[in-house]
Every structure is written in structure tokens, then in C-alpha cells.
Amino acid sequence: MRCTTLLALLTGVMLYLVMGALVFRTLEAPDESLAYTNLIATKHSFLVNKSCVTELDFHKLVKGVVSAVEAGLDVNSLPANFTSRWDLASAFFFCGTIITTIGFGNLSPRTWYGQLFCVCYALVGIPMFGILLAGVGDHMGTVLRRAVAKIETLFLKRKVRPTTVRVISAVLSIL
């Protein structure tokens, strides 16, 4: 694969990652923000208005917490200012873990349309990344073969034994 083709493919994959990050951010961040707002309101209402907790009030609080957890919030620590887990950098990283099939697992879409997009995104992205990886491997193999051939001719011109040249070539190929 030619270097220009490889660079075009790399550019395409990077643009695909950015596009996916923007879509995931658009799909997931509003629900996450809404869950945060609802949880803060529930917490505030619970703490301000309830001097004596009833069973019904307790169940309302638990329902609010469960709803926030289902939306992907970490309820162990609620900062005063909301920061989405679906910022552009995190979404870009998530897209990278999808197309490389790493699947790190610390972030995942919680909405059904986010999950549906994730499946479609992977169906296109995984083969695209595989083609890029094959192209990079092909290009590196070509560069390595040329370098080893130049080193072999250099050693053969200096009257080094062919067996020694083959050993040096094998060691360089392994490295």
C-alpha cells in the first residue's frame, strides 16, 4: 500500500472517530445531564423538606438514585458543578476502543439509540480499522525489507561472509 493511500486511510479513520465522538456526545450527554439535575433536585428536596423521613419519601429518594445510576452517574460523589462523562475527549476514546475492539468498559451508551448507533458504528469502524492496520503492517514490512536489503549490500561490499550477513539480517528483521 502506498504511503499516500495509507495517510488517506489514516485521515479517514481519524475523521470517523471524531464523527462518532460527536454523535455519541450528542446522544448520551443530554440524558446524563438530565439525570444529574433530577438527582440534585431530589437530594436537595429530601434534605431541605424532610426533618423526619417516611417510607414513601425514602422510596422516592432511592428511585431518584437508581434512575441516576441507570443513566451512568457516579452517585458516590456529586460535585456541585456537573461535568459530563461524554465530553469530546472521552467520547473519542470510547470510539477508539470500539473500532480497535479493545472495549475498555469504563464508559458505555445508556440510551437505546446510543446503543443502536454503537452497533452500527462498530460494523463500519472495525473493518475500516482492520484495513488501516493491514496497510500499516504492509508499509512497515516494505520499509524493513528495503532497509535490510541496503544493509546486506553494504556488508557484502565490505567482504563480510554471507553467513554473517544472513545472521545480521535475521537479527534486524526480528528487532
From TrEMBL:
The keyword Ion transport applies. Keywords: Ion channel, Ion transport, Transport. This is Potassium channel subfamily K member 2.
